[in-house]
Amino acid sequence: MSKIGVVTFPGSLDDGDAARAARISGAEVVRLWHADPDLHGVDAVVLPGGFSYGDYLRCGAIARFAPVMETIADAARGGMPVMGICNGFQILCEAHLLPGALTRNQHLHFRNRDQWLRMENSSTAWTNHFTEGQEILVPVKNGEGCYVADRRTLDELEANGQIVARYIRGNPNGSTRDIAAIRNEAGNVLGIMPHPEHAVEALTGPSLDGLGFFSSVLKHLADAKAAA
Amino acid sequence: MARVVVDVMLKPEILDPQGQAVANALPRLGVNDVASVRIGRRVEIDFAGDADLERAREIADKLLANPVIEDYEIRVVEAA
């Protein structure tokens, strides 16, 4: 069974839901601790949402230097699948594992609602379950979710198919080019501002669409094991 | 003790909604001649010994400013 690690930083909120989502999808979940650099043999890592280190300085800026992040950054550069959700996306940008940055919502309001996304790239470890153009519904909840990057970086992201999901039927935070999720060039690192881990059960979520991210990485890991 | 001050500002091309909100509030104070307001962060670093500008620059590069969206200026100030 593939092992998915879920990191807890001081101030993480959604680590429990991320672990639950991974478990429901059929993974063995390993809880990772920010101060412990050991990844305990996991095959993939989720950086959950929340307010790591109180969001002091900039969101994700201090988490980037957590002992566990140094190991995760090396593993990510070596091809390990890593998904950063919300605060996790901010941490991945601060760690330079993804380009650009996430800034204060343009209207300055915290936004918490169910949000439609259009999936634009299924060639990542975390999105192979989706078809391109598929519309999904997941919760979004952020105060600093406005993605920015310089024009050259944005054009490169578009040209390389690195924009994985866009907001549709309304942009909740003013994000440039309606960007909701991006991937690195290799496709193993995904940053997503909305919360797939909150859309995995009918009782509490607006859909079950979030499961696709977790089943994608499990398929990716199984395929990699079969090929090895 | 020696102090180094680092002023971190959003790059000019990055929208500063916080500064805009302040600018939009100014007319309510009767201030109508302000074209724009931008908000940054001032960081004071006190060294135990002499001010180490290189060290402070390293801190600023690695942690205090995100070069994707922010610029910074750095200077030694006289101890108060």
Automatic annotation (TrEMBL), chain A:
Q: Which InterPro entries match?
A: Class_I_gatase-like, PRibForGlyAmidine_synth_PurQ
In the Enzyme Commission scheme, what number(s) does this protein have? 6.3.5.3, 3.5.1.2
Top-level taxon: Bacteria
Name the UniProt key words of this record, in alphabetical order. Answer: ATP-binding, Cytoplasm, Glutamine amidotransferase, Hydrolase, Ligase, Nucleotide-binding, Purine biosynthesis
State a GO cellular component annotated for this protein: cytoplasm
* Function (record text): Part of the phosphoribosylformylglycinamidine synthase complex involved in the purines biosynthetic pathway. Catalyzes the ATP-dependent conversion of formylglycinamide ribonucleotide (FGAR) and glutamine to yield formylglycinamidine ribonucleotide (FGAM) and glutamate. The FGAM synthase complex is composed of three subunits. PurQ produces an ammonia molecule by converting glutamine to glutamate. PurL transfers the ammonia molecule to FGAR to form FGAM in an ATP-dependent manner.
Q: Name it.
A: Phosphoribosylformylglycinamidine synthase subunit PurQ
Automatic annotation (TrEMBL), chain B:
Cite a single GO MF annotation.
ATP binding
Q: What is its EC number?
A: 6.3.5.3
Reply yes or no: does the keyword Oxidoreductase apply. Answer: no
| Gene3D superfamilies in UniProt | Phosphoribosylformylglycinamidine synthase subunit PurS (3.30.1280.10)
The kind of enzyme this is, by top-level EC class, is ligase
In terms of InterPro entries, this protein maps to:
PurS, PurS-like_sf
**BP terms from Gene Ontology:** 'de novo' IMP biosynthetic process
Catalytic activity reported: N(2)-formyl-N(1)-(5-phospho-beta-D-ribosyl)glycinamide + L-glutamine + ATP + H2O = 2-formamido-N(1)-(5-O-phospho-beta-D-ribosyl)acetamidine + L-glutamate + ADP + phosphate + H(+)
GO cellular-component term (any):
cytoplasm
What does the UniProt record say this protein does? Part of the phosphoribosylformylglycinamidine synthase complex involved in the purines biosynthetic pathway. Catalyzes the ATP-dependent conversion of formylglycinamide ribonucleotide (FGAR) and glutamine to yield formylglycinamidine ribonucleotide (FGAM) and glutamate. The FGAM synthase complex is composed of three subunits. PurQ produces an ammonia molecule by converting glutamine to glutamate. PurL transfers the ammonia molecule to FGAR to form FGAM in an ATP-dependent manner.
Q: How does it assemble?
A: Part of the FGAM synthase complex composed of 1 PurL, 1 PurQ and 2 PurS subunits.
The record's family statement is:
Belongs to the PurS family.
Mind telling me what this protein is named? Phosphoribosylformylglycinamidine synthase subunit PurS
Q: Name the species this protein comes from.
A: Catellatospora chokoriensis
Lineage of origin: Bacteria, Bacillati, Actinomycetota, Actinomycetes, Micromonosporales
What would be the name of the gene that encodes this protein?
Answer: purS
